[in-house]
Amino acid sequence: MLYPAGWGSQKVQDYCGHDASPYKVGECSLGWAFYTAIGGTVLTFICAVLSAQAEIATSSDRVQEEIEEGKSLICLL
C-alpha cells in the first residue's frame, strides 16, 4: 500500500507526466520487479501454510515413537 505513496512527487511527475499521482502511474508502467515481489510474497505465505501442515502431521506421539525407532518419515498432505 505504501509503494505508490511517492508517485505524486515532482520528480515522478517530471518522468511520468502531470497525470501521475498516488495509485495512478500516468505515462509510466510497473516493471517486472513489482510483480516478482508480489509473487514472492504469495509464495512465502504458501510455504508457511505447507510447513504448518507438515508440523501437524509429524507432531503425534506415534510418529515420535517411530522416529526414535529409526524409521524414515515421508510427509504427505
TrEMBL record:
Sorted UniProt keywords: Membrane, Transmembrane, Transmembrane helix
InterPro entries in UniProt: LHFPL (IPR019372)
Cellular compartments per GO CC: membrane
Subcellular location: Membrane
Keyword Isomerase carried by entry: no
Keyword Lipid biosynthesis carried by entry: no
Chain segments annotated as transmembrane: 32-52
Protein name per Swiss-Prot or TrEMBL: Lipoma HMGIC fusion partner-like 2 protein
Membrane topology note: Multi-pass membrane protein
Originating organism: Acipenser ruthenus
